[in-house]
């Protein structure tokens, strides 16, 4: 029985990887089991191929599959699309971020799906005051955890379901009230040693800057797919944060830059004692 050239090439490691990479690029997001069936190889083989392609910078490895670079790096996508990306990584980051929140404290949360995951992870907390521009956060917060919820006003970006406007509130007489928080939880689009924390939207960057300026402590939330990149608008320099919470250790250059700016990197590998109890301090 003869096998045509394309079929032979598909089962050679180099040829299979090339076709696998092309398939991921075309579809945007795939699972290991789907690829194993499509290419007629074992799940372990697909995992090795994806790990190698990820190391080569061809795609981004995710829990149970992979996503294309264009999918990950298209920064201005609808919130329902972003909810499906890097889900496992976001949940890990969210759990770590929640461990920094102290009972009876005030926190600010910006727009984004990683910060939304943090809101869902606050069920063990009590008496929190939350201020946010993320329109999905009020519905995601466990009622038992909350004392008060405030939503910053302004124009609504329907793409991200977040408001864009001043980080402030006014009294009934019209005077602006001075506000501050114990902890700002800020999700960003990119983190780089030279560019600091950046995002794709200028107005959102301005809001994030103001949240940071009003916080006693600042935690930046970013999964590892955002390392070593720079987007349109700078939110702040690395030194503005107390913590970078992520799913895996940053590359050496970024890790060194963060250390030089006294930013503590928190990953799932860090011990709970290093992260601190939620009622500490």
TrEMBL record:
Pfam families: DeoRC (PF00455), HTH_DeoR (PF08220). Signal peptide: none annotated. One of its GO terms (molecular function) is DNA-binding transcription factor activity. The keyword Transcription regulation applies. Residues 13-68 form the HTH deoR-type domain. Keywords: DNA-binding, Transcription, Transcription regulation. PANTHER family: AGA OPERON TRANSCRIPTIONAL REPRESSOR-RELATED (PTHR30363:SF44), HTH-TYPE TRANSCRIPTIONAL REGULATOR SRLR-RELATED (PTHR30363). This is Transcriptional regulator. The lineage of its organism: Bacteria, Bacillati, Actinomycetota, Actinomycetes, Micromonosporales.
């Amino acid at each position: 029985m003869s096998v045509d050239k394309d079929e032979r090439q598909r089962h050679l490691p180099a040829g299979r990887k090339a076709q696998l990479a092309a398939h991921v690029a075309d579809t945007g997001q795939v699972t290991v089991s789907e690829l194993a069936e499509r290419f007629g190889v074992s799940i372990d083989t697909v995992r090795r191929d994806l790990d190698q392609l990820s190391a080569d910078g061809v795609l981004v490895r995710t829990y149970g599959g992979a996503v294309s670079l264009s999918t990950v790096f298209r920064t201005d996508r609808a919130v329902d699309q972003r909810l499906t990306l890097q889900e496992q990584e976001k949940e890990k980051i969210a759990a770590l971020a929640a461990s920094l929140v102290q009972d009876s404290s005030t926190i600010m949360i910006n727009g984004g799906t990683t910060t939304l995951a943090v809101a869902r992870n606050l069920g063990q907390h009590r008496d929190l005051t939350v201020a946010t521009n993320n329109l999905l956060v009020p519905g995601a917060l466990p009622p038992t955890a909350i004392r008060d919820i405030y939503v910053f006003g302004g124009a609504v970006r329907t793409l991200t379901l977040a408001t864009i406007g001043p980080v402030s509130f006014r009294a009934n007489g019209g005077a602006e009230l001075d506000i501050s928080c114990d902890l700002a939880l800020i999700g960003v689009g990119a983190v780089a040693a030279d560019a600091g924390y950046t995002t794709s939207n200028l107005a959102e960057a301005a809001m994030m800057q103001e949240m940071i300026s009003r916080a006693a402590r600042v935690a930046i939330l970013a999964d590892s797919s955002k390392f070593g990149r720079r987007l349109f608008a700078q939110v702040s320099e690395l030194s503005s944060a107390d913590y970078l919470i992520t799913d895996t250790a940053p590359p050496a250059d970024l890790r060194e830059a963060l250390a030089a700016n006294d930013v503590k990197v928190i990953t799932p590998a860090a011990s709970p004692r290093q992260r601190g109890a939620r009622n500490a301090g």
